[in-house]
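Q: Is it fine to ask for two folds in a single conversation?
A: Yes, each is treated on its own. Send the first.
Q: Here.
A: Result:
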Amino acid sequence: MLIDIFIPCFIDQVYPETANNMVKVLEKVGCDVHYNVEQTCCGQPAFNGGFWDDCKEVGQKFIKDFSNDRYIVSPSASCVGMVRNYYGELFHNSALHNEFKQVQKNIYELSDFLVNVMHVTDLGAKLEGVATYHDSCAALRELKIKSEPRILLSKVKGLELREMKDTETCCGFGGTFSVKYEAIAVSMADNKVENALATESEYLISTDQSCLMHLEGFIKKQGKPLKVMHLADVLASGW
């Protein structure tokens, strides 16, 4: 199966290994992965900031960059949620109406694609230790992804998954929210990390590197004994 991948701007610039690991996972399940080097951003930062004209310009490019009928897989639930849930507000009844509808239909977050499209749950991954999973707001509320990451993690050999208290509560990142309301964002990160540590986990795992970036900053500053990992990095471990 030939598929496209969309690598969010912050993963491209800060966490390229996560993108590489997603490619490894997709190739292992039989996908021929195509990466359009012209791709940039889905437009989410501009949209959330209220700059809809700028967002629409970026969104137009996104739609044209993926103007085919292939699946589009991304390691970011928030970016997928942006395209699926908010492109309609930008492009409904526009010249790109049919094109944006096609892109909305084709784009998937990684765990959703693996479990519900490829029907794969065991990647042969191995990771020794105890982990807890953080439900990102985008994955849970915008894409209704709950069981898929947990199913995949349950098949990772050597990994014990423990649920933490208030796993569905926001971590405090929220894009520009963490910049505008730093004190609140830090307090929310503190609560999330303490709940994770209460499970005696070594790893904090999520589908969204943006959440993990926020939490990792707090963890490192406070010197907490916890390592964050994106789901793609876990699934590519041990083989």
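Q: Second one now.
A: Result:
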Amino acid sequence: MGMQLSLYSLSEQRVDDLLADPPLVLDILDGDEADIEEFELDKAWHAIHYLLTGSAWEGEPPLNFICQGGQEVGDIDTGYGPARALGADAVLDIANALEGIDADTLAQRFDPEEMEKQDIYPSIWSTEPEADALEFCTASFMAMKDFIDRTAERGYGILICMR
């Protein structure tokens, strides 16, 4: 299965509830919350982080949100560590930062050789045709950007979970 990343759009009150009572995160991850929109970034998460920040794990806020952003929701291991929550203001900052980034921008930053050197997950950069690998990244990014825009427009926060 590998490492997959999911984003959940949550009301600001729901973000506050999670931070105050971290075990509530399990209800969200179990799909028990019908009113929460989920977006599966799947295995493209690390490549998108790299293309946004130029770094395997670091980067400047707010574009480093995939690997660095938010506040840990307690110490409940949801697969690969605790989930992280970002409030509505942080989501708006992310949406604004992503505004000028499109598929062409990502294509200019796409460097399969460097991504392989940096061990960017998933390790497809030297085995897949470059056009296919780029499409994998840009399609996932554009869908994620739409999700973040919708979330910001609603004044919602985001829960980030890697499983």
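Q: Anything structural to flag on that second result?
A: Two points. Residues 130-154 form the longest helix (25 residues). The longest strand covers residues 5-10.
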